[in-house]
Design brief:
298 residues, alpha+beta, Beta-Lactamase, Jelly Rolls, 6-stranded antiparallel beta sheet, 4-stranded antiparallel beta sheet, 6 helices, 15 strands, 29% helix
């Protein structure tokens, strides 16, 4: 049996160990970091927003919490110096932990001495935003080469906003309604060929109940991928090759007279085909009525 004195010293040692552990815990903290996948997702968010607002060109740079470059993408039509500028903006945003617009405004108000800081880590131009996750700055995103400085910042903010969802559990439910079409509606759609579902609600797909009574023109959908499923009739479809006399007929839609080259396939009921956006395709011969579903994905 331990004596009271030994028991006391044992308790003291235990308290010292626990105190040391608590102090060590207080001196360290879990640090989140930006991964390459995360950097690429930031860039994807910037590109998606640029397409939505029809922003011309631009260079997107993403750096980690230390200002080291992780990912860079230069969109078509952007001036060559945009890469270095976007990197500088991203690095400035993360190292100074503020949007770069703040420093541009400070200099414009007369504190020009800040402009003398080395370019290697300070680019006081609008368009750099810290990337924050759960209150921690994990990186920075910089955009250069959009139409205006304000648009540079708008695109960078869109990229930084995407990072707020990193690590979040994916939604288990959707607020989008279920679409139902009765046999009567489907049959009516095929009787004349029509759009069954128009992609409403911000969805990136449409469903057509298509009908062909004869050959058609060559088609190119610059943004829509067509997924075909044949129900009735048959057709010879030519894909690829070169369109002859192609002319735009609507936004993102081109029509032509014929295809030179390309690959011919005969489609029958039960067959399916995927035609990526930008690929010429031509229903050259049709055994009517040719009925088929088309799912258009953009």
């Amino acid at each position: 049996m331990k004596t009271p004195k030994k028991l006391f010293y044992g308790l003291v040692m235990l308290l010292l160990v626990l105190s040391a552990a608590a102090i060590a815990s207080a001196q360290t903290a879990e640090k989140k970091s930006l991964t390459l996948d995360g950097a690429e997702r930031v860039i994807a968010a910037v590109k998606a927003h640029a397409a939505q607002v029809k922003a011309p060109g631009g260079v997107i740079a993403v750096v980690d919490a230390g200002g080291n470059l992780m990912a860079l993408e230069r969109l078509d039509g952007t001036f060559a110096a945009g890469a270095n500028i976007s990197i500088g903006k991203a690095r400035t945003a993360v190292l100074f932990q503020k949007p770069t617009k703040v420093f541009e405004e400070i200099i414009n108000k007369g504190r020009t001495a800040m402009a003398a800081l080395p370019d290697s880590f300070f680019t006081p131009l609008q368009g750099g935003i810290p990337v924050v996750l759960d209150g921690q700055i994990i990186g920075g995103v910089g955009v250069s080469g959009a139409a205006t400085a304000a648009q540079d910042e708008e695109l960078a903010i869109a990229g930084a906003e995407a990072a707020k969802s990193f690590g979040a559990d994916p939604p288990m439910t959707s607020t989008l309604p279920v679409s139902y079409f009765s046999k009567i509606e489907v049959d009516e759609g095929f009787s004349k060929g029509s759009v069954l579902f128009d992609g409403s609600g911000g969805r990136n797909y449409m469903v057509h109940t298509s009908r062909r009574e004869g050959p058609g023109m060559v088609e190119v959908h610059t943004k829509d991928t067509d997924i075909l499923y044949v129900l009735k009739g048959s057709a010879t479809v030519v894909t690829g090759g070169t369109m002859v006399d192609g002319k735009p007929i609507a936004a993102e839609e081109i029509r032509g007279r014929e295809i030179t080259g390309g690959e011919s396939r005969n489609l029958f009921p039960g067959d399916a085909m995927i035609i990526p956006n930008g690929v010429p395709h031509w229903f050259k011969d049709v055994q009517a009525p040719f009925l088929y579903y088309v799912i258009k994905v953009r």
